[in-house]
Structure formats: C-alpha cells, structure tokens
Amino acid sequence: MKLLAERPPDATTRPHDLRSPPLATDLGLLFLRLSFGLIMAGHGAQKLFGIFGGQGLTATGKGFDALGYHPGEFYAGLAGVSEFLGGLGLAAGLLTPLAAAAVIGVMINAMVLAAPKGLWTQSGGMEYPLCIAVVALSIAAIGPGRFALDRPFRWRDGGMACAGFALGVGGIGALIVLAI
C-alpha cells in the first residue's frame, strides 16, 4: 500500500501541495499569533505605559516589590518589555523563537509565584501562566506560518530546535531573575 505522500501528482494536484500546509493552517496560525500576541503586548503596555486599564510602571513596580522582586520597578519594566516586545514579535511572526522565549521567561516566573496555590486560577494557581507559556512554546515549535515576517528565515517552519531555543532561553532568563 502506497502512502498518500508517495501518490503521483494528477491534473488537480501540484507536487508542492503534498508538502505545504493548507491555507487553513496558515490562517489559523495567523489568528492565534495575532490574538495571543496582541493580548500579551497589551499586558506589557499595561505595566509599562498604564494604558488598557493598567497601573503603569511605578505602581506595577510597587506590586513587584511586594512580591519580593527588588527593585520592583526594574523587574516590572523587565516583565513589561518582555510581554510587550514578545507579544508584538509573536503577533508579527518576527523572530518567533526569541519572542516566544521572552513570553515563556515571564510566565515561568509567574508560575513559580503561583505554584504554592495549586493549579487552578480561582485559587490563585498557575493555570493561566502555564497555558500562556504552552501557547508561546507551541508557536515556536510549529513555526509562525506563511503570513509572518519570519517567512524568509530558516526558523519559519519551527521545529524542535526553535522550541528548544525558546524554552531554553526563556528558562535561563527566568532562572536568572529568580536567582537575583
């Protein structure tokens, strides 16, 4: 029995159609990147600029101080920049593994803070940052798709190396922040 990929092309099928993802896959990735990336950028903008109902850097810094991140304003700025630029990078599909790493690093810190409260969000648990980190990692693994600024680069198709880079750099960044 021949596999589908071994099927010779006929009049209605071009050879590259058997290797290229369907348009729906690329559109799905675009919608995921845009919604997820812009929401993450919005979270960063709340911290940095006080827009979208955010408190701004000074007030967010006081909150970070209360969580044990000293100096709070520095760490609030670091989290805000990571969310803002990481979110914009994911939305645009630009430097996708690095953008995913920025988001993953912030979410690892959030998971560490929330872990003592369990999994579920209603008890203050780590469900939400875990899901965000998994989405960012998944986008790095799958690749940003056809409708991305990364299209000319070799990491456009994702893969284990891109996912490993995103998780490794995000994890190292989170460990540095947690160790300081």
Provide the fold topology.
Layout: H1 23-49, H2 56-66, H3 72-92, H4 96-114, H5 127-142, H6 160-179
Helix pairs in contact: 1-2, 1-3, 2-3, 3-4, 4-5, 4-6, 5-6
What are the defining features of this structure?
180 residues, mainly alpha, 6 helices, globular, disordered N terminus
SSE string: HHHHHH
Oligomer: single chain
Strand content: under 5%
Residues in helix, %: 55-70%
Distance between the termini: 59 Å
Taking pLDDT < 50 over at least 5 consecutive residues as the criterion, the unreliable ranges are: 1-5, 7-16
Sheet having the most strands? none
**Using DSSP, what is the number of strands?**
0
Which radius of gyration do the C-alpha atoms yield?
A: 19 Å
Number of helices: 6
Task: State the shape.
Answer: globular
Structural class: mainly alpha
Mean pLDDT: 91
Note down, in words, how this protein is organized.
By secondary structure, the protein is mainly alpha-helical. The chain is built from six helices and no strands. Helix 5 runs antiparallel to helix 6 (160-179). The N and C termini lie far apart (59 Å). The model is unreliable at 1-5 and 7-16 (pLDDT under 50).
